Fold:
Amino acid sequence: MSTDATAGSDADPSTDDLAELQAQVEALETELADLRSDVENGPKKMVIIATKGTLDMAYPPLILASTAAAFGYDVTVFHTFWGLEILHEDNSKNLQLSSVGNPNMPVPNAIAALPGMDRVTTRMMRNKIADNEVASVEELIDVSLESGVDLQACQMTIDLLGYDEADFYDGVTTGVGAASAFQEMVEADIQLLV
Amino acid sequence: MSTETASETVDVKGQNCPMPVIKTKGAFDDVPAGETLEVVATDSGSLSDIKGWAESTADAELLDQQETTEGGEDVYKHYIKKVE
Structure:
C-alpha cells in the first residue's frame, strides 16, 4: 500500500519510537508465552455439583471425579441437598434405590410403591454391584480423597437437613457455599450438574 | 520384550471401572523415569480406558497391550513406560 497518505514531516519514525515499539512487542510476546504455558501446562479443572442421593446417582460423580484426578485434573465435587448423603459416613453405606418412577425397572409402579419395595430394589442393585465387582460408594470416596479430589459439603444444606459437620467422612470440606462453588466453576474447564 | 522390561507390576484383577485407571495412575507416579509399569487387569474396558489415560498423560507412553487367558479368565496386560 502507498505510504503517501502518511507522508509529512513525521513520516520517518525516530529511533526512539522504534525502540519503544520493539519493547512493546517483546512485552506482548512474553505475556502471550506465559498465557500459552498456563493454558497448555497448568492443571485443568473440573467441578461437579452433586445433588442426588440415591444409590445409582452416587456413582457418576464419584467415578468421574476419581477418573479426572487420575488424568491430572484438579477436581471439586460440591455436594448439596440429597447429594450430601454420599458424604455422610453412616448414610452413604445405606443409600437406597426406588423402582417408582423408573420405567426401566422390571416392576410396575403400582407394585413398586408398596411398603418395603424400595428395600427389595436396593438389595437387588447392591447384589448386582457386588457380583460385577464394582467398587462400593465408600471405596470410591476413599480413592477420590486419596487422589486429591476436594469433596465439599454445602453448608446451607448441612444446616437445612440438620446434619453435623462431624457426620461426614474425614477429609470432606465443610463451610462452603454457592459463591465458592460458582467461583470454582468459573475457573473450571468442565462443569457438570449431576 | 516389553514384558521383560517392566520394572513394576500393579495387579487390578477383579476390579472394575474406574479402579484400573486410578490404580494405574497411583502406581505410575512411583515408577522412575525410563522404567515401565505392567498393569494386569480382568476388566475388558481397561483396554480403552488405559489407552485413553496414557494418551492424555504427558510422561506416559503405552508400549503394548496384550489379551491373554489365565485359568479360564480373560486377562489384559498393559505396559506403560515413563518417558524422561
